Amino acid sequence: MDKNILLISQGATFMVDAISKNLTAAGYKIIHTAPKMDELNAHQNDALVYVFYLGDFVNEIKDVLIYLKDLCMERDTLLILIGNPAELSTVEQTIPSALVAARFERPFDFKKLIDELARLEQANSDNARKKNILLVDDDGTFLKMVKGWLSPEYRVTIVSSGVQALMYIADNTPDLILLDYEMPVTSGPQVLEMIRSESKVGSIPVIFLTGRGDRESVMKVMEFKPDGYLLKSLDKNALLKALDKFFDKKRYQELHNQSIQ
Questions:
Q1: Strands 4-8 and 29-33, how do they pair?
Q2: Are domains 4-126 and 130-259 of this chain identical in fold?
Q3: How far apart are CA 83 and CA 202, in angstroms?
Q4: Per CATH, which fold does 4-126 belong to?
Q5: CA separation for the pair 207, 210 (Å, rounded)
Q6: Which of these, 33, 92, 166, 222, could form a disulfide with 39 (CB 3.0-4.6 Å)?
Q7: Does residue 140 carry a pLDDT above 80?
Q8: In the chain, where are the structural domains located?
Q9: In what order do the strands lie in the sheet with 155-159?
Q10: What is the average per-residue pLDDT within 66-74?
């Protein structure tokens, strides 16, 4: 995890200045931005950690909160919220708690904030050694559930549309894409076709997720030549076992290819 922190706040206040000074003294580089979509868009790639200092203005920026939620989902950003109970509750009506790395109620202890950042840095360092899976599905509930299942073993990035998936892989190379076969607007097969047509990302393994397990449906899914398919009805243990088997097989193939070169 880099040492950049995007500090989101509505103007400069005594507390915002104090946060900035304490984090700078702890070795972090602070990038200030306002809770506005154009500014968040301009700075979205500047840091992997966002510290959002809340205020009563959060009641008036629903569109910004939705945009911030999407950023956290697409970029796997670590979001830290600081505010009073009412402000935190308002934000978490739009940004689910599963996407919030940490939350602090005012008044808070600066040391605890710095300790939490250090913990997240260590966890992120450990996480970086895990295989990265991009999970694509238009069902938000399914996304959160499966991410919760897989996160202890894998780095999981979730997006809710084919377009978002294509935007993600334009800048990132996951080790595997779990792709919903049936999605509105841009279907799974259409996304796979676009991935395979691009030499830069064409070799990324893609496994379809399908809700239909009958022979005819499976044959139709496999016509598009994915790297496999998994039923969406699989439970946690079965899904983890299937993914472990996939990566074990892939590792064996890579070792075999190296041995005959």
A1: parallel
A2: yes
A3: 44
A4: Rossmann fold (3.40.50)
A5: 10
A6: 33
A7: yes
A8: 4-126, 130-259
A9: 155-159, 132-136, 176-180, 206-210, 229-231
A10: 84
